[in-house]
Amino acid sequence: MATLRETGSRIERGSGILARRIGRALTPEGRPVLATIRIGIVCLAVPPLYAAIERSPLILAPLAIGIWCRRAWHASAPVPLDQEQTRRQLVEAVLEMVGDRPGIHLSELYPRMLASPWGAHLDETRLRAALTDARITITRSMRVGDVEGCSGVKRADLEALLRPAPPSPEPSPSPAGGDAGQAPPESAGERAGERLETA
Predict the structure, then answer these.
(1) Helices marked H in the chain
(2) Can you name the residues that pair with 139 across neighbouring β-strands?
(3) Phi, psi (5° rounding) for residue 150?
(4) Residues with Cβ < 8 Å from 60, sequence gap 6 or more?
(5) CA 103 – CA 152 distance, rounded (Å)
(6) Could you say which of 79, 123, 128, 177 has the lowest number of CB atoms within 10 Å?
(7) pLDDT, tens digit, 9 for 90 and up, residues 125-163
(8) DSSP state of 187
(9) Per-residue b/e over 94-103, b at no fewer than 16 CB within 10 Å?
(10) Per-residue model confidence as pLDDT tens digits over 24-69
């Protein structure tokens, strides 16, 4: 059962998510005419709605607040970050934002991810943790276009994460006198972290 503080925090976080979604819906990227039409419709619709709430504040105001809080609560539902499918979806989402460029800087990636459906439930700290959990390497100094020296993610690293893992070699038979049924040693897979790459 969520405490009052947790509930308030979740509704606050969800309200920010809803506000970003509304902003994206009103101003679709690369479509200024459609954005102008949608904003105009909202400007025409808001005054009558506000007047209706003023006429029946005891009914419509609580109803509107309740609907908003409910939507904010659902929008801020936690995203499971430990599933392989979710990890792959995150890698694919970042790769899509990279496009045909050699990579993407975090200063561009974070706002775009937080405004996307995938990252709408996260903040910057949780997004950074999600990138780490997905084994996405963050290069501390890389060049993208005319900008260099900023932290970012390389397309080659993302593509490598989406390639199928090579088949494991057949274990060699144990030498005479060895422990029968001894499990082979685990691979010392290195956790993805940060690396420095100078331009």
Answers:
(1) 4-26, 32-55, 57-75, 84-98, 106-114, 124-133, 155-162
(2) 152, 195
(3) -110, 155
(4) 52, 53
(5) 7
(6) 177
(7) 888 888 888 888 888 888 888 888 888 999 999 999 888
(8) P
(9) bbebbeeeeb
(10) 788 876 678 888 888 888 888 888 888 888 888 788 888 888 888 8
